[in-house]
Design brief:
Blueprint lengths: L19 H6 L5 E3 L6 H9 L4 E4 L4 H12 L6 E6 L5 H13 L4 E5 L7 H6 L3 E6 L2 H10 L3 E4 L15 H11 L5 E4 L5 H10 L3 E4 L1 H4 L10 H9 L5 E3 L7 E3 L1 H8 L21 H27 L5
Parallel strand pairs: 1-8, 2-3, 3-4, 4-5, 5-6, 6-7, 7-8
Antiparallel strand pairs: 9-10
């Protein structure tokens, strides 16, 4: 048997018609909104499109409570609140988590910190917990902590990943093989049908979008104009890892100077910006992923099947 094809190394294949991400969160499509905005109105757009909208939970506890209630007034669909655990002192983060519990939010996404601290507390309140990881060892620790979903953040992504520089092609299958019992979502590197098919082939059961959702018709209401300009102008060399402990991917100063005339302006965006050249609606993005993705997967499968006959030629 060829190397990589043993049971221990094989990427798990979900049963036909089932999706653990959808089942966990009670959503129609396995699409999570990244923590790109605290604005409930934008999160509601993603919820209505079939995904899991998200409120970036970096404000005061009182403000987060207000945002949660506003979002509930806009949609009856499930949503999440993101808590980057490194943002704020312990008492502030605990205050934010307490609000999530008191408001009985459907889901919480934790990042930039240990999943052991709040996972059990949130789950005891009936809240589903996703945790962002940037390495296989991190994923194993999060699984031990009992998280409901893992969100894998590769080096290409715009999110918080610390010192890790692990590419999507290694991170996703590595986690899928190491922790097959926990649903896995791929964050970063996906903007279209080909990206969705690729990460699901690697072992993810869903996708988290950030950069792609920022550059949409609805996104224009919530993000500065220069962000859209930089994403649309980006190529594969336009971003870099920021300094600091969380190391998000951001636009390079020289790129910002060339595109918007101010090298001090910074857009947090993944390398996938190089593949974004239009400004669709959020609903059109979702259709491209899941309707287009199904068509693309069939084409890829047919191309591989055509080659299979050459094995014994």
């Amino acid at each position: 048997m060829a190397e990589g094809s043993t049971g221990a190394n094989r990427i798990p294949s979900p049963a036909s018609g089932s999706n653990r991400v959808c089942a966990t969160f009670g959503i129609r499509l396995p699409l999570m909104m990244g923590a790109i905005s605290p604005r409930p109105k934008f999160a509601a757009v993603v919820c209505r499109a079939g995904g899991l909208g998200c409120i970036e939970g970096i404000s005061s506890p009182d403000k987060i409570r207000q945002q949660i209630r506003e979002l509930r007034g806009l949609t009856d669909e499930p949503f999440s609140v993101n808590f980057p655990l490194a943002f704020g002192d312990r008492s502030l983060v605990e205050g934010r988590v307490k609000v999530a519990i008191e408001e009985r939010v459907p889901a919480v996404m934790t990042s930039a910190g240990s999943p052991k601290v709040y996972t059990r507390m949130l789950q005891d309140a009936g809240i589903k917990v996703a945790h962002v990881v940037a390495g296989i060892a991190h994923a194993e620790k999060a699984a031990e902590a009992g998280v409901d979903v893992l969100v894998a953040e590769p080096t290409e992504s715009g999110g918080y990943r610390g010192a890790n520089e692990i590419a999507m092609m290694v991170l996703i299958p590595g986690i899928a093989r190491a922790v097959p019992g926990v649903p896995l979502v791929a964050a970063g590197s996906v903007a279209d049908r080909a990206g969705l098919v690729a990460v699901m082939a690697l072992g993810a059961e869903g996708v988290q979008l950030g950069t792609r959702l920022m550059v949409t018709q609805e996104g224009r209401e919530f993000f500065p104009e220069y962000v859209e300009k930089m994403v649309l102008a980006a190529d594969d060399t336009s971003t870099m890892s920021a300094d600091g402990p969380t190391r998000p991917r951001v636009s390079k100063p020289e790129f910002a100077e060339r595109i918007v005339g101010d090298g001090r302006k910074r857009a947090q965006m993944g390398q996938v910006a190089a593949l974004i050249h239009d400004v669709p609606t959020v609903a059109e993005v979702v259709r491209e992923l899941f309707e287009g993705g199904a068509s693309h997967a069939r084409d890829v499968a047919a191309a591989i099947e055509a080659l299979r006959g050459r094995l014994d030629a």
